[in-house]
């Protein structure tokens, strides 16, 4: 990395800094330009890419739970994962994400555990239509499905589909998780009367998605601001 020493020491730069100083009033730090950037997350990451030739990539990668197994591989500087938790350690006992599984997913040599990761590429008439995916543990599958349904069935654009409130159900616990604003009070009351149990939770997931207009080929990228480190960027 090269430090812009000459620019930082130039009279023009000094004048710009000096102009920001208010001689008659203290300046709140929040108003001072510049930032440290978004915090890097401790959890699963997803990114979606489409290049100028229409090639698409959807990637979800993870350590599983926060900081994986909390062990650094020698002097490499990266943590080892704890994907063993995706296996069934004990039938009938929930894992870190509350999933209750059976003996079929038991640990065995050379075996892959079940995973909720769902990097997805959607085609329409054989042509690229949508690229999507999300972190979020056991909520990933419902998050990705809802982003697709919001576009295909409800006519939302990509950003609307990503921003829309979500729901999630994973068999056990026997409750429907909903984000604030997902249901009207009337709808929730009617469903509760049918026997559904709802639990409002803080927002989850971070769907990073791209929608391609089949008619024009124009790409629309959408960043999920439920987590602060993502962005949508074009070329």
From TrEMBL:
Its EC number is 2.3.2.2, 3.4.19.13. Residues 216-235 are annotated as: Disordered. InterPro entries: GGT_bact, GGT_CS, GGT_ssub_C, Ntn_hydrolases_N. One of its GO terms (molecular function) is leukotriene C4 gamma-glutamyl transferase activity. Keywords: Acyltransferase, Hydrolase, Transferase. PROSITE patterns: G_GLU_TRANSPEPTIDASE (PS00462). Pfam families: G_glu_transpept. Gene3D superfamilies: 3.60.20.40. The keyword Isomerase does not apply. This is Gamma-glutamyltranspeptidase. It comes from mine drainage metagenome. The lineage of its organism: unclassified sequences, metagenomes, ecological metagenomes.
């Amino acid at each position: 990395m090269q430090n812009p020493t000459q620019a930082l020491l130039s009279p023009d730069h000094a004048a710009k800094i000096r102009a920001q100083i208010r001689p008659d009033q203290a300046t709140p730090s929040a108003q001072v330009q510049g930032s440290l950037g978004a915090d890097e997350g401790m959890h699963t990451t997803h990114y979606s890419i489409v290049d100028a030739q229409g090639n698409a990539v959807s990637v979800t990668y993870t350590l599983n739970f926060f900081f994986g197994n909390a062990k650094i591989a020698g002097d490499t500087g990266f943590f080892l994962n704890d994907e063993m938790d995706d296996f069934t350690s004990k039938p009938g006992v929930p894992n870190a994400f509350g999933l209750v599984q059976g003996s079929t997913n038991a640990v065995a040599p050379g075996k892959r555990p079940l995973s909720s990761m769902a990097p997805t590429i959607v085609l329409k008439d054989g042509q690229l239509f949508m690229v999507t995916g999300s972190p979020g543990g056991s909520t990933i599958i419902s998050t990705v499905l809802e982003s697709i349904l919001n576009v295909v069935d409800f006519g939302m654009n990509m950003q609307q589909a990503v921003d829309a409130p979500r729901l999630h159900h994973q068999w056990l616990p026997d409750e429907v998780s909903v984000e604030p604003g997902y249901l009207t009070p009337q709808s929730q009351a009617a469903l509760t009367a049918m026997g559904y149990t709802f639990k409002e939770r803080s927002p989850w997931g971070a769907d990073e998605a791209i929608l391609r207009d089949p008619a024009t080929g124009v790409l629309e990228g959408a960043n999920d601001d439920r987590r602060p480190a993502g962005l949508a960027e074009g070329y």
